[in-house]
Amino acid sequence: MARADHACGEDTEAEQPPRGHNQEAMLARVTSTQPRLPQVGEPAPDFSLPSTAGGDISLADYKGKQSVVLYFYPKDDTPGCTNEACSFRDLRSLFQEHGAEILGVSTDSVRSHKKFQDKYGLTFPLLADQDHAIADKYGVWQQRKFMGREFMGVVRTTFVIDPRGTIKAVFPKVKVEGHADEVLKALQG
Length: 189
What we know:
Elements: H1 23-28, E1 48-50, E2 56-58, E3 67-72, H2 79-97, E4 100-106, H3 110-120, E5 126-128, H4 133-137, E6 141-146, E7 149-154, E8 157-161, E9 167-171, H5 179-188
Parallel strand pairs: 3-4, 4-5
Antiparallel strand pairs: 1-2, 3-8, 6-7, 8-9
């Protein structure tokens, strides 16, 4: 589904530390030196976060009803994150046909998410994990490097969670190109 008014950026993302954050304070908030991602077959960590859908969205909202594609991304309106979001947007009807809802999570605010959603016509909820508590639970808040600088941030990762709340697939350190298609295949399998 090509949309001239909602063009997506190229995957040339150069992610930087979040603006306005004290790097030393961020490093002091590290919860472990070796973050652990939930593994296939394990219960997905529960969450409840403010969303662009209005109010909070939690994993419990989907339990017993449908699968969830929970994807963590570093920052709204950056090239790689835009490409990833647009790929999920373009395939959303296929995800829905397979009984899954797509939820995007970053540490940006709901206000930032709404601007991002409106700018690119994103049709699924974006969740605001501003204190990175859920990113910590899912093991995706990690030390990163960019241009020789180290900082804490979200490492692009996707989880497929079945209706029982169990992790069905994990995609760590995602490369954007073709990722939404891979996730759809995992959901189908």
